[in-house]
Amino acid sequence: MSDRMRQWLVTAGAIFMIFGTLYGFGLIGTPVEQSSSGSLSAEATLLAPAVRAFSIWSVIYLGLIGYVIWQWLPANAASTRARRIGWLSALSMALNGLWLLVVQVGALWLSVIVIAALVATLGELMRRLGKPRATAAGEYLLVDGTFGLYLGWVSVATLANVTATLVASGVDPGPEVAEYLAVAVLAVGAVLGAILARVLGGRIGVAVAMGWGLFWIAVGRLTGQPSSDLAGVTAAIGAAVVVVATALVLRGRPARRTVTEHAYDH
């Protein structure tokens, strides 16, 4: 794929994402929390984050738009890292837009497939970026930081999406069993965060977004509806586990190499 074709592909993915977002925020269609009969609202399930959690999308969207501009700059047109993740970044934005359109029509099981594909895409994208290395601060924040937040948040959102879909499909094990199942799913989320910390070399963006999502699940369960002290405390512990696991990986990682040393990798 030529660099110019890659740049246009990334831009097209961003345009489609923005189109889907106009629906998701209710500027054209129905807001996400009201779509699919309210199955994805902040009070739909025990794994739904409180409303304020979704403000992280503003940061992610700004970062993605910044990335689209960054990859068009002449100095970055032939960037090795931009080439590594070009089509994956475009696909991630297209899947984002697709998910927002799918939930508009109430196709929740299809939305699970789409968000799972999004997580897989972002996971591979972060793998291709490699473990954190010395690079220009602006690039690190814009590229590594944005896609790290993106992966971390969508990982937590996937747990909430699957749970909402099961509940909307009529799965009702009863309040007590539902609490224990929520605890089990939250534990899986914490373990996933620890695994991502290990595999990706301690990505701060991933940890921040996962910790953020789990923290707001805790807030939702401890202060809102449906109420569950057990799920709330578990979510808070899960957030701490993800952050601590990432900190331990960073602490045990060798000192980052210099930019000059990194250049020899290419």
Lay out the secondary structure.
Blueprint: H1 3-24, H2 56-72, H3 80-104, H4 108-129, H5 137-168, H6 175-199, H7 204-223, H8 229-252, H9 259-263
Structural class: mainly alpha
Query: In total, how many beta strands?
Result: 0
Helicity, in percent? over 70%
Low-confidence stretches: 256-266
Q: What is the terminal-to-terminal distance?
A: 19 Å
The tally of structural domains comes to 1
In this structure, how is the largest beta sheet organized? none
Rough shape?
globular
**If you average the pLDDT, what whole number results?**
90
Oligomer: single chain
H/E topology pattern: HHHHHHHHH
Q: If you compute it from the alpha carbons, what radius of gyration comes out, rounded to the nearest whole angstrom?
A: 19 Å
Which band does the percent of strand residues land in? under 5%
* Number of helical elements: 9
Description:
72% of the residues lie in helices and 0% in strands. It has 266 residues and is an all-alpha fold. Helix 3 (80-104) packs antiparallel against helix 4. It has nine helices and no strands. The chain has one domain.
In short:
By secondary structure, this protein is mostly helical.
Can you tag this structure with a few keywords?
266 residues; 9 helices
